[in-house]
From TrEMBL, chain A:
Domain LOB residue range list: 4-105
Superkingdom assignment: Eukaryota
Pfam families, per database record: LOB
Sections of the chain in a coiled coil: none
Organism: Abeliophyllum distichum
Protein name: LOB domain-containing protein 24
From TrEMBL, chain B:
InterPro entries in the record: LOB
Protein family according to the UniProt entry: Belongs to the LOB domain-containing protein family.
Protein name: LOB domain-containing protein 12
Pfam (any one): LOB
Domain LOB: 5-106
Length: 151, 171
């Protein structure tokens, strides 16, 4: 039974050894994955990067390299950095919206509090001595606007 | 007037720097580290091919983004830039949740202050997954929430220290 070469060795047209560093991360059923990383990084760079990492980190490294290569092929000028810029802009926009709404909440809260205070002052008035009230009536006639008592 | 000194790439590659050297405008000899790191991650021939396939006016930005990605990969050999993307996607999701909460709060306040019946429908609060996938689908961004940078602080700090193409987005 012939053993299948990994996508890397197929692409590079070479024999796939049993300890091939690419075989676990670039299976033969996904040739595009290796083609993309090879186009951007080069097979020898990928091999060096994977070799410099402990075995349990290599799968994630291969995935992230593929993602970066994919982004670079889609956007040859900015690659992943284009996505980072979009995300940074979005963060800034959402932070501005949150700040706006929080300012509005603070304003509405203050407004409601001052209405509450005025309402409480109005409630206090009926508890005054009726004699005092009649005296005030006499005084208030001398003002143009009796509402100035409360402001 | 003396001859032109070789650019950083030709110095590193130990070759004659031609007049029409594709690297010379972007890798000056006074910054050898810039080319060294790009060569380490991408390789000189790959960078040369990428630049050759692009119009002149886009090459400077391309080099800047390649340098940024190479630096990210050297700092974080497992996730590189992708760790930063994953981190920022999480931030966006969290901020959108905060925004939804704030919007609900202000709606409550407005309803309390105006007790007349409101005919508009109440806002639908999306859960975290819905929101992030909504945002990502709107912008056609692949979701990489599974990635976490092996050192988030390293990548995040780079946003504060380095400005991406002259823009400081995070205050």
């Amino acid at each position: 039974m012939a053993s299948t070469r990994c996508a890397a060795c197929k692409y590079l047209r070479r024999r796939c050894p049993s300890d091939c560093i690419f075989s676990l991360y670039f299976p033969s059923n996904n040739p595009q994955r290796f083609a993309h990383v090879h186009k951007i990084f080069g097979a020898s760079n990928i091999g060096k990067m994977l070799q410099d990492l402990p075995v349990h980190r290599r799968a994630d490294a291969a995935d992230s390299l593929y993602y970066e290569a994919h982004c670079r092929i889609k956007d040859p000028v900015y690659g992943c950095v284009g996505i980072i810029n979009i995300l940074l802009q979005e963060i800034y926009n959402v932070q501005c919206q949150i700040a706006k709404i929080q300012a509005e909440i603070a304003f509405l809260g203050t407004h409601a509090q001052s209405d509450q205070t005025q309402y409480q002052q109005l409630q206090i008035a009926p508890n005054l001595d009726p004699n005092f009230l009649s005296e005030q009536k006499g005084l208030s006639n001398s003002f143009d606007d009796s509402s100035t008592w409360f402001f | 007037m003396g001859g032109n000194s070789p650019c950083a790439s030709c110095k590193l590659l130990r070759r004659r720097c031609a007049k029409d050297c594709i690297f010379a405008p972007y890798f000056p000899s006074d910054d050898p580290h810039k080319f060294a790191i790009v060569h380490k991650v991408f390789g000189a021939s790959n960078v040369s091919k990428m630049l050759q396939e692009l119009p002149l006016h886009q090459r400077a930005d391309t080099v800047s983004s390649l340098v940024y990605e190479a630096n990210a990969r050297v700092r974080d050999p497992v996730y590189g830039c992708v760790g930063a993307i994953s981190y920022l996607q999480n931030q966006v999701s969290q901020l959108q949740m905060q925004l939804a909460v704030a919007q609900a709060e202000i709606l409550c306040i407005q309803m309390q202050q105006e007790p007349a019946p409101i005919t508009t429908t109440s806002p639908v609060l999306l859960d975290a997954d819905d929101k992030s996938s909504y945002y990502l689908h709107q912008n056609n961004l692949p979701q990489f929430l599974a990635f976490s940078s092996s050192n988030n602080n390293v990548i995040y700090d780079s946003f504060k220290k380095e400005s991406l193409f002259g823009q400081d987005m995070i205050s």
